[in-house]
Amino acid sequence: VVDLVIKNGKILLEGSLTNGGLAVDNGVIVLIAKDPKLPSADKVYDAGGKTVLPGFIDLHVHFRDPGYPEREDFFTGTAAAAAGGFSCVGDMPNPRPPTTSVEALLEKRKTAEAKALVDFALYGGTGTKNILAIHALVRLGVRAFKTYMTSTYEDLATTSYGSLLDVLELVSSFGLPLMVHAEDQSILDFEKEKVGKTGLKGFKAHANSRPPIAEEIAATSALLTAGYVGAHLYLCHISCVPALEAVRRAKMKGVRVTAETCPHYLLLTKKDGEKLGPYAKTNPPLRSRSDMEALWTGLRDGTIDVVSSDHCPYTKEEKDVGWEDIFDARPGMPGLDTSIPLMLTQVNRGSISLEKLVELYSGNPAKTLGIYPKKGALLIGSDADITVVDLAKEEVIKRDKLYTKSKMTMFEGFKVKGIPIATFVRGELVMQDHEIVGKPGHGKFV
Ligand SMILES: [Zn+2]
Asked: Does this model's pTM top 0.85?
């Protein structure tokens, strides 16, 4: 008798959907078989003929905990994750205090362990000022570091190319990836001043102040420096053609780069931004239709490896001030609740295959953190992190149905087809039919 059997599913195995189920014991997959061959179990979940996939992993979330409980916390953030079909998330190092020291990491880990419904990785924050903490953070189990080429966060900023070489070299000496926000601060400063003189204060003003060339120069420099020291670079939220082309060239030269984009760059353009105003303000900004189309090509041809939400919640007030002056609104929006329904809709439309989606949301994220195939795969011995999706179910995205504390989305009113209906984390059902059924504290530090 095992702990759990999931039966009557369509399981994605080696690229095709096979009828059957799987058995789980002690949180691990012990058997994948046709239903009649499954053992008896304490709990049985009938998948009702729906699709059974490896649990999704979002490598780019900002849970604001500790420090900004009004925006999000580890309970509401992981509830949004579970509801959205994610069994694991990677949390960025910019709450208050930033995760740049042993004390800050231990505090965050304690907070997260008490509240999380799904498993979580915690990234170390690094930059010119915090390079010395890297070694200690690695010893505490940090599996990636994040830095900004912009000066947005003083403690997380890498302020020169020399310093970037240094940080990349040190992080990669531990075999870990460095996640980089790539926009060039000197161009941002220059363009913002220019925009300031025009008196423009709407969405366009912000978008114009962060042109593609700022991303291209920073991404290209990061790729060159990573290639030079042989480091593993993780380029966050690629949004435009020139940055994508830089990744393509670097990959051909053998640079070790994992490239990420987000659903909002794949599904929205600056035209949408003009309607959504501060609700579409994010860094880098939404781009043009041709950028969007190129990103889809990049997904299909393997230039882009990972799609993340860049789940970045703020309070309504922190966004609404931007209707007067876009520069007063905070940049970023939540996305965990909505990413998978939006992307499954694209699977249904034939934009990408289901197998590709699983690669982007399970296999590649797990490989990036060095935890594959413990996570990110349906294999004997893998953690029983499992997401069941109903590919035929249709819904409309509505603010009031979201689990994120901020109750905001760039995709209000979007019709979606393809919904996660159950999320298991190491064999525990944490979400069923959009209800949170897991217990806070189930989520473990990865
Ligand atoms: Zn981010």
From this structure: yes
Contacts 24+ apart (CB under 8 A), 25-29: 25/427, 26/427, 27/3, 27/383, 27/384, 27/426, 27/427, 27/428, 28/381, 28/382, 28/383, 28/384, 28/426, 28/427, 29/378, 29/379, 29/380, 29/381, 29/382, 29/383, 29/384
Residue 384 CA to ligand 1 center (angstroms) comes to: 28
Residue 382 has what pLDDT? 98
Query: Residue 62 above 90 pLDDT?
Result: yes
User: 172: which residues sit within 8 A by CB, 6+ positions away?
Assistant: 178, 229, 230, 231, 232
Contact (Cβ atoms closer than 8 angstroms) between residue 247 and residue 223:
yes
The tens digit of pLDDT for each residue in 37-49 reads: 999 999 999 999 9
Name the 3-class secondary structure at 145.
strand
Q: Half-sphere exposure of 313 toward its Cβ, with a 13 Å CA cutoff?
A: 30
Do 427 and 27 contact (CB within 8 A), yes or no?
yes
Distance of CA 362 from the midpoint of ligand 1 (Å) = 19
What are the structure tokens assigned to 288, written together? 């043009």
Q: How far is the CA of 144 from the centre of ligand 1 (A)?
A: 14
Edge to edge, what strands does the sheet with 119-122 contain? Answer: 56-61, 86-91, 119-122
Q: What is the distance in A from the centroid of ligand 1 to the CA of 329?
A: 16
At 159 the pLDDT is 86
Instruction: Write down the pLDDT at residue 15.
Output: 83
Q: How far is the CA of 172 from the centre of ligand 1 (A)?
A: 21
How many Å from the N-terminal Cα to the C-terminal Cα in the chain?
Answer: 28
Q: Span 274-294, mean pLDDT? A: 98
CA atoms of 306 and 258, how far apart (whole Å): 7
Helical H runs in 257-381? 263-267, 270-276, 289-300, 316-320, 339-349, 354-358, 364-368
- Surrounding residues of ion ligand 1, Cβ less than 5 A: 310
**Contact between residue 58 and residue 236 where contact means Cβ atoms under 8 Å apart:** no
* pLDDT value for 14: 82
State in Å: Cα 312 to ligand 1 middle.
6
